[in-house]
Amino acid sequence: MAIEDDVVVVGGGIAGMATALSAAREGAQVRLLSHKESTLRHASGLIDVLGYADGLVADPFEAISGLPEEHPYRTVGEEGIRDGLDLLDSVTDYAGGHTDRNALVPTFGGRIKPTARYPKTSASGLASDDRDSLLVGFETVVDFDAPLAAERLSADVPFDARGVTVAFLGDFRTDARITRLAHALDENERIERTRNGISTSLPARTALAERVKPHLGDAERVGFPAMLGEERPGEVIASLEAELGADVFEVPMGPPSLPGMRLETAFHDALKDEGVRTTSGNPVVDFEGGDELEAVVVERNGAEIPFYGDQFVLATGGLVGKGIDSTRERVSEPIFDCHVPAPEDRYDWSDPEAFGEHSFARFGVETDDELRVLDADGEPEFDNLRAAGGVLGGYDFAAEKSGSGVSLSTGVVAGRIASEQVNVNP
Amino acid sequence: MATDADVLVVGGGSTGTGIARDLAMRGLDVTLVEKGNLTHGTTGRMHGLLHSGGRYAVSDQASAEECIEENRVLRDIASHCVEMTGGQFVQLEGDSDDYFEEKLEGCRDCGIPAEELTAREAREQEPYLTEDVKRAISVPDGAIDPFRLCVANAADAEMHGARIETHAEVTDVLVEGSDVTGVEVRHASGPGKRDHAKPGTTEEIRAEYVVNATGAWAGQLGDMAGVDVEVRPSKGAMVVMNCRQVDTVINHCRPKGDADIIVPHETTAILGTTDEEVDDPENYPEEGWEVDMMIDELSNLVPILRDSRTIRSFWGVRPLYEPPGTGTTDPTDITRDFFLLDHEERDDLGGMASIVGGKFTTYRMMAEQISDHVCDKLGVRATCHTADEPLPGSHDFTLLHDYMEEFGLRSPIGRRSVQRLGSRAEGVLTSTDPNPVICECEAVTRAEIQDAIEGAGTDLNSVRIRTRASMGNCQGGICCQRMASELHPEYDEPTARDALDELFQERWKGERHGLWGEQLSQAALNYALHATTMNRDGDTENIDFAAFDGGNRGD
Questions:
Q1: Which residues from chain B sit within 8 angstroms of residue A359, using beta carbons?
Q2: How deeply is B39 buried, as exposed, middle or buried, from its count of CB atoms within 10 A (0-12, 13-18, 19+)?
Q3: Contact (CB<8Å) A175/B541
């Protein structure tokens, strides 16, 4: 007996999970195949829809019509984006849904960035809120230098930001991982402390609040690097707020990003609830089929295992997620070898300026208006293969701040169409 | 305002810092000026080979003998900069037997310990060598860190009273009558350590004697003094791999040719090189085909290179020189000897000499000879001690301590710090507490970064070459920001930001040549991390905050 589903989604990032959820909610039996850790642990956990077009964007929906033709948003339209955000809101308790407007969230480099949805843990930190802020960093958490970030932030925002660096609690190794420290706060582990020769122990959250209190001053809100608990950040924040008498927020960080990992967990729970079958840990290496795709083949311990389906969605990510690959000579899509346009000379793939107009940032497959993947002649590569998220070309998610928005919206639309096709051809 | 020195050395590469150390140790009052950071020119752009002399054992036996002599000296005085990897001259099927025999004999003639290896022995030592190996010659080639070496020379010169000024570009050579009396320099920020935010100043430095040790740039300095120094700059491309595919230096045993050496260097392997004359040492084309050729040719020796990850490429310029009238057309035929041009003898201009040509491995010997010349000119009687006195970091460096427990670091990190710092490890690593890891790829901790900032100010590229932070697989994507943070609060936010921007751009520039496969994926991640998560590219000035989401208190 073959392994068979209605819709097979390849890729476990936001796009793949949104696709799978969308297809499942439309009634299809869905299989989600993921290979490695998703790139969510590298991402901030913020949901960007469109932060920059011709300059900073306050309302992404107003700016969509000005995007170039090949942009994925032009394919899925405003409705697709709204559907994508609705799906997110059904999965998480993120904030920002009360308005179409972007929020400005301070990040660990001390700059603010526009985003459409943000975790509740970051909600008290918004830059348009004019309450004075204290940023707190830890001596051993080297990604976030709170005094430096505060100085940077103060140049841009309408409030006073101060920063202080404190020692983390207890007897952790100097190079202890952020996840280890977050775990201590989650569990409210008891922390040993010696003062004047007398040893006492305190719960971690209380100990942290005590360390911060002397620095509070006039600040009405306090920002920490995003490591306030892996699983129970709400609880950690509530404890800290009670002890400090001030609002507490998290400043999104780079890898390993706890908000990104929490977001992944929320999606996994939703997928489970919808009955999506998930198979992870092994790569898709091949496929079966002609004009019509019949199966994708997963390699596991040297064996090749086909996953049959009626409809397929490619959501393997871009260059970072390895959904797009390259050699010295060419850029390619490694599973189906779908057409990926790229300049012939590899020096034209990037710009001499670090933040210049990089061609590589736009690498990806082309699709028709139903998100079917197209070959070099503009014909569908397969009748039943669609694409969503980072594997799509024609947009620069980093410069635009549009990564999650494109993944959610194209995922929702691709999942829905795939499911509809199943119903059309049962 | 003018300051005075006995000797002014222009150029902060191996030759310049070597001369400054030598003369300072002899008791002279030395000032060294360098327009970039130390090693900015040719020295920082070499493949890091400590020659055994084997390379020159057929074509240039005098050089070969010098190399093996200095190889032994540097192992002794610069032990913390040297890794004695050993080397092989590999003969492939089809390569000339005669040349192989000549090479073996040449090595022995020059006193280079050389041993013939069968194909099996060669591959036992280096399992990734191609099966087409016929046999090999084993020689005492090594790897040397040119950055660490120059910094140690400069630091020791300073300890002996010298003044070392980086980011100080010579804008004029002062001439009175028929004598050079000094130079005018422009400081990029101010004298002393670099500080990005400060405007520059100029300074006149008078000296009894000026040494032009600017290598490929010697002609430009000569012009300022009104004399002709005809260096023939020749570029060479080098490709940095993400790991050590080989642990010994692999040379292709053939008369000459491009792309015939692989040098294991710290965590990487460096493929080299080409040899092509260029007009201008500063501006010359850096081309993709050179990178491709390096990978394609050397894959014949070590086949896994074909599919390995390339992290960046760089080009260096050799300061080749041959006496006027020699007329060599092929730059690979130009001698690697060095020449001391005494401008008094040559051009009737007193008080200045230029040093051109030469090899990195014999920099100390060159410095000794030049220093002898300078002392002679100044009537100073003093002897050279640079061959006997260890450089800072190489004193009593006999044991590799395991610093895991002492510093709360996991053992490989402690070990690598100690390898880099040598005998300075104890002092540096105990200076900062806590001492977390800043650069994970190269295992560099805060203490090392702080130690480097003390020496280099806000010049993070200079911090980089002292520590190797940002030189690993991620090419600074993760740690550039952390390095810049270490400048604060001693330096303010705009200064730290400028320093970060400069380092990030420098890393980006070299990475572009290797952007495909894994490294393009890494570059896309770095770009995303800095542009997306931090929004370092987006404009955030003069925002109308009321137009944005006011959060749970607003709206």
A1: none
A2: buried
A3: no
